[in-house]
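Form 7-S
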Amino acid sequence: MTREEIKTILPHRDAMLLLDELYREDDTAHGVKYINGDEWFLQGHFPDSPIVPGVILCEILAQSACVLLTEGVGEGKIPMYTGLDKVRFKSPVLPGDKFETKCRITRARPPFYFAEGQGFVGDRLCVRAEFSFAVTERKA
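Output:
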């Protein structure tokens, strides 16, 4: 999926849409974010040594997993983060990196969905986490 196609699933726009590409392979979501170095979240994190903040890596994982919720998310619905557990940061993500995610749903009790994900630069594991969502009514 391209960014425009991702917008049909995710409510995020402009600077908060953190995926450049997304695709589903069986029960696994694969996301891609190209870190160019001019992203808003690198400004001041850290001067002269920019590193993608961990919270942004977790948000990229969550956005990636949402492609797996397409059956549960219909018109007027929105997936909302409800939890983040067992997060481990293993290696920094830097300008020039291609950050790739692999996420899967581990359990579903609609409207709640539980997932796990990993983020890589090449073969290097950068982050792993477990997280959950609730599919709720979209507020106007």
